[in-house]
Protein: Glycerol uptake operon antiterminator regulatory protein
Amino acid sequence: MNSPIVDMVQSQVIAAIHKPELIDEAVGSKANIAFLLTGDLLAIKDYVHRLKSAGMSVFIHFDFIEGLSNHKSAIQYAAREWQPDGIITTRNQLIKAAKEEGLLTIQRIFLIDSSALKRGVELVRSCGPDAIEVLPGLMPRVIYELTEELPIPLIAGGLIKHKEEILEALRAGALATSVGDPKLWHLDL
Structure:
């Protein structure tokens, strides 16, 4: 697995920040990567700056930021003005635009059934993200199958509530886990 995201991961727990008031908790945690799942056009630059100033790598979940469009110009603006390390999205066209801007990319896929799994693999192959995030992250067998089929890092996320669930995902081949519970951000993994 030759990906810049692999080199970036120091803690295998990623702080998935879903409320602005959790930014300080993320900064004080053992996580070295933050997934920003909250914000709007006016606040996001400050959030990115605060996290990066603390030495964290920051990925903006583009689908969740209020006021952003799903156009190439929004990616260009975010890359130049906010300067995150990368983006997370479910949209292929945003993956391609972000790569053109030099951002790292994470394709988020929802695994609700076997046809969603097949579509997810096809999407990943067509747009070439740097990593994928699969949700829910509580499926070790599927995580293993995806890591065998796709040559890019996999991040497990969604519905993870316990340390053992993180360890199961990691044993199945996940590079890291994105976790919304701040108590888990302090695990030394």
Q: What stands out?
A: The longest strand covers residues 104-110. Helices lie at 4-8, 23-27, 44-53, 72-82, 92-100, 114-127, 140-149, 163-171.
